[in-house]
Design a protein that fits this description.
The chain is an alpha+beta fold and 42 residues long. Helix content is 29%, strand content 31%. It has a two-stranded antiparallel ribbon with strand order 1-2. Residues 3-34 form the DUF4368 domain.
Length: 42
């Protein structure tokens, strides 16, 4: 949650933001995208 608050002011997607929150991005045929996040839901 601290990371979400830390970046809540950002208006654009930056490399730092992606590195913090995104673990992996999968791109499939038919314009389908799956994002694997760096955190888990509780």
């Amino acid at each position: 949650m601290k990371q979400v608050i830390r970046y809540s002011h950002m208006e654009k997607l930056t490399q730092e933001l992606v590195d913090t929150f995104v673990k992996k991005v999968y791109v499939y045929k038919g314009k389908r995208v799956k994002i694997e996040w760096n955190f888990r839901e509780r």
